[in-house]
């Protein structure tokens, strides 16, 4: 498995995860992408799916990463982005009203840990300098669907765990976990493995998570 992991570059890992996450949306959805890794999802939205991407700094109608940077148009992570037709700007009060008021159909967030109950830790490592939680707690509670995207492991540290040991962002709010190795649905009775990267086996997944999970009867391969 080590050799397999070495074949997946950081760029390929990001591509696999972002492409898979982009398949979760349907026409008419309003979607918020968290800062960092999740913003890459915007580059893989299928052309036949019409959605609106919202950025928590006050922008509805986010497009792809800008090829020619415009310092006046940035997303919440400070990245330069394009606008889609009909885009609009508004203040933080309106942005958080949308997020807290149930107006976001789906949100895509990174994570430090996710556990088998769907609880999420993504804002703090004790003892490390941090900027604060940001809008993550508002998004995960307010959005109708919460999708976590992250590398399967970080520096050999397991990230899909039985119980989060880091400070929680939210309790039992995650609906879907997408890594470069697999996809887990968070069900009423715990995690369900629904998709797997063909480069890995179910045993590989079992050895790299501490969370208990069941394997779907309709387990299928991820597109890589």
Write up this protein.
The chain starts with a helix and ends with a strand. The chain has 224 residues and is an alpha/beta fold. The mean pLDDT is 91. The longest helix has 13 residues. Helices cover 18% and strands 30% of the residues. The strands form 3 sheets. It has a 10-stranded mixed β-sheet with strand order 4-3-2-1-5-8-12-13-14-15, with helices on both faces. A 3-stranded mixed β-sheet has the order 7-6-11, with no helix packed on it.
Short summary of the structure?
By secondary structure, the protein is an alpha/beta fold. Helices cover 18% and strands 30% of the residues.
Layout of secondary structure:
Layout: H1 2-7, H2 10-22, E1 30-33, E2 52-55, E3 59-65, E4 81-89, H3 92-100, E5 106-109, E6 113-115, E7 120-121, H4 136-142, E8 146-149, E9 153-154, E10 157-158, E11 160-161, E12 176-178, E13 182-187, E14 190-196, H5 202-207, E15 213-221
Parallel strand pairs: 1-2, 1-5, 5-8, 6-11, 8-12, 14-15
Antiparallel strand pairs: 2-3, 3-4, 6-7, 9-10, 12-13, 13-14
Helix pairs in contact: 3-4
The residue ranges in which pLDDT falls below 50 over 5 or more consecutive positions are none
**What kind of sheet is the major sheet?**
10 strands, mixed
The percentage of residues in β strands lies in: 25-35%
- What is the CA–CA distance across the termini? 17 Å
Average pLDDT level: 91
Count of DSSP strands: 15
* SSE ordering: HHEEEEHEEEHEEEEEEEHE
Fraction of residues in H or I helices = 10-25%
Overall geometry comes to globular
């Amino acid at each position: 498995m080590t050799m397999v992991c070495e074949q997946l570059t950081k760029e390929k890992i990001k591509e696999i995860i972002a492409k898979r996450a982009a398949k979760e949306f349907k026409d008419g959805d309003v979607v918020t992408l968290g800062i960092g890794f999740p913003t890459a999802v915007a580059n893989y939205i299928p052309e036949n799916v019409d959605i609106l991407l919202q950025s928590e700094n006050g922008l509805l109608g986010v497009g792809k990463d800008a090829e020619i940077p415009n310092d006046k148009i940035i997303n919440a992570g400070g990245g330069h982005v394009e606008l889609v037709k009909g885009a609009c700007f508004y203040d933080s009060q309106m942005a958080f009203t949308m997020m807290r008021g149930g107006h976001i159909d789906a949100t895509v967030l990174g994570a430090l840990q996710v556990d088998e109950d769907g609880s999420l830790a993504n804002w703090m490592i004790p003892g490390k300098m941090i900027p604060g939680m940001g809008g993550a707690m508002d998004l995960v509670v307010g959005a109708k669907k919460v999708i976590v995207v992250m590398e399967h492991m970080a520096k050999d540290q397991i990230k899909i765990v039985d119980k989060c040991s880091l400070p929680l962002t939210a309790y039992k709010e995650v609906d879907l976990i997408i890594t470069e190795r697999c996809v887990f649905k968070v069900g009423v009775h715990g995690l369900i493995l629904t998709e797997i990267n063909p480069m890995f086996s179910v045993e590989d997944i079992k050895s790299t998570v501490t969370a208990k999970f069941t394997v779907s009867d309709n387990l299928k391969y991820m597109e890589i």
